[in-house]
Amino acid sequence: MSIETNKFYLSNLNWLYKSSGEVMTNGQAANLIKTGIKSINIECKSCERNWSSSGSNDNSLSLFAGGARIACTCGSEESIQSTILNKAG
Fold first, then answer.
1. For residue 33, how many other CB atoms are within 10 A of its CB?
2. Helix, strand, or coil here: 83?
3. Can you give the pLDDT at residue 28?
4. Who wins on pLDDT, 47 or 65?
5. Which helix (H) or strand (E) holds 88?
6. Angstrom distance (rounded) from CA 5 to CA 42
7. pLDDT (tens digit, 9 = 90+) per residue, 17-45?
8. What is the DSSP string of 38-72?
9. CB of 35 within 8 A of CB of 18?
10. Which of 22, 43, 67, 86 gives 9 a disulfide partner, CB atoms 3.0 to 4.6 angstroms apart?
11. 3-state DSSP call for residue 82?
């Protein structure tokens, strides 16, 4: 699924997960918790640049509590809330 923000098109969001550590007494596995973005495809509306980014391999994507900040080489940047990101993946 892809979503459109004011400055970017976002698609193919892959989350990083970790085990919640909760103790389950019914034999089921513990729930997983989203801990970050593994990768995401981004298209800038200003310069039409397309790229794939992850929180660990470049400066175009930085994560913060409650969302992410995306920055393009053309100078376009935007902070996006996690509620919006949840719609993309």
1. 13
2. helix
3. 67
4. 47
5. helix 82-88
6. 11
7. 887 766 666 666 667 877 788 889 999 99
8. EEEEEEETTT--EEEE-TTT-SSEEEETTEEEEE-
9. yes
10. 43
11. helix
